[in-house]
Amino acid sequence: MSMSFDQYMRDMVQPMRDELTSIGIRELRTPEEVEANLPEAKGTALVVINSVCGCAAGQARPGVAKSLQHDITPDHLFTVFAGQDKEATAKAREYFAPYPPSSPSIALMKDGELVHFIERHQVENRSAEEIAEDLISAFDRFCR
Question: Which residues pair with 79 in a beta bridge?
């Protein structure tokens, strides 16, 4: 039995995608989808740069999920998947300057402008609860 590498990777990462889409976060899988959504998103938009690493699984995705249980949340919820939807991720990262590419990472935008950013190094050494608290603080500040 032979399976292509691409099919294997799609099968392996689907649960990682589902972890975010099942809580209402919309995937942007092409540069065109990113371009049609991020600069036009009125109000606030959360953008999760998803990845296959352990800190995405243990801290970033659970932290995002916990933060979205807060009373105040962004108007729009998006995700791109680093290493899988490469062109979409590269296009999304254009909006996150001056921050260098990192994954996982989490951006909060307001009217198309970056207002809060959590880089990978801020995910790696913190718990999901700490990441949720960081995001909730940003939601309280920017999403009212």
Answer: 27, 48
